[in-house]
Amino acid sequence: MPKVRFTPHLRRFFPKLEEGPVEGVTVAEVIRALDQKHPGLAAYLVDDRGALRKHVNVFLREEPVRDRDRLSDAVAPGDEVFILQALSGG
Amino acid sequence: MQLLLSTRKGLIQLVPEGTSWRTLRLSFPGVAVSYATRDPRDGRIWACLDHGHWGQKLHYSADDGASWQEVAAPKYPEGAEVKPGVPAVLRYLWVFEPGPADQPGRLYLGTEPGGLFRSDDGGASWNLVTGLWDQPTRTTHWMGGGRDHPGIHSIVIDPRNSRHVRIGISCAGVFETLDDGVSWRPTNRGLKASFLPDPSVEVGHDPHLLVACTGAPDVLWQQNHCGIFRSTDGGAQWTDVGEAGGPAHFGFAIAADPANPATAWVVPAHSDEQRLAPSGALCVCRTDDGGASWQAFRTGLPQRDCYDIVLRHALDYREDRLVIGSTTGNVYVSADRGVSWSCLGNHFPPVYAARFA
């Protein structure tokens, strides 16, 4: 199973969030699985259509995901998915 | 009575202390709060959040702000489009309006990009009001004003008839429903839209804020992009009541006296081109004759080196008191119907909304 890591910022809203293995063969499936475990989490990462929010980044194997719209990038067992926020101003 | 300041850095609650106010708490530290208000039916405080990263969120507190519960924010339905080829997704929670006493569980949310959402179960679920979304002028004549897409920032429920609701949209104008949201019609006759080729169009106006006199609900006021307008017949006809040659003309906020249909307050700004405090000085203007004349009150407000703008939801009136909060983080209150003001602080974050609650 792919392993997911998070920005610590998300623990403010989801204190039980932990790094670890999550089911899924695409980034979209990984986020759906995370949302089942932590209800409401997906709405923090993607918009009404399921597209990645403008100031959220998902890295797959240390590269930004290519398909920010549908999150169709394939995820292999052993891959690391890193979810974090973009940098922002004051 | 409390004071709710929705600011760029969180929700600040203030409570009366002697003749002034003191901060009770800061909720959502560091998170922009676009609007907050109290539902008088159950006492809940509702807060609309505008996270820089994580989107628009909706929270309520049933214990006066000590703890908060998040409920799912509304979503635009699959396939909804702002205009052909532009998918509609929730961009901003402009205003939250509790429903009337005879519609328990009813709540309204006005949003960008132009959707009005309604809940009938106390916020557990939200539905787009499709009668308005399907209004034929929406994709052709509504447009963004200050933000990318149209926004619903004013929701006024007729106290005589809960099925009669008026909304203000920037930019589109004022619309009303008489059948609880099934059908809507524009009520913009008499308004001016000087930024359009035809200033007297039916749809395309920019009412910065729409308010009504609670005790005389056919008397409506709006601080419009193109002046101050008043209607005495429920919006069938609007009249420009701005002050020729005086400061009471351009601005964002307006408050109506709930008991006296001839009285309203505005916080003038210098022109839509500059959006600055007029002549570097802040004033609040009041009319007591339906807009025929305006008095500018300045006592206690900065009269030099001032750049403050008061946004549309950052002026409120209750029981002879007024509050204003500015984009420069200054907050002032008046206990004498706006004649004189005292400062609550000069170091607040930019204020998006100030509401007595």
Q: Describe it for me?
A:
The complex is a heterodimer of chains A (90) and B (357). Chain A has a single domain, classed as Ubiquitin-like (UB roll). Chain A is an alpha+beta fold. In chain A, a hairpin with a 2-residue loop joins strand 3 and strand 4. Helices cover 18% and strands 21% of the residues of chain A. The mean pLDDT of chain A is 94. Chain B is globular, with a radius of gyration of 19 Å. In chain B, strand 4 and strand 5 form a beta hairpin. In chain B, 52% of the residues are buried. By secondary structure, chain B is mainly beta. The mean pLDDT of chain B is 97. Chain B starts with a strand and ends with a strand. Chain B has a four-stranded antiparallel β-sheet, with no helix packed on it. A four-stranded antiparallel β-sheet of chain B has the order 4-5-6-7, with no helix packed on it. Helix content of chain B is 3%, strand content 43%. Chain B has three helices and 30 strands. Classes of the chains: A alpha+beta (90), B mainly beta (357). At the A-B interface, helix 2 of A face loops of B.
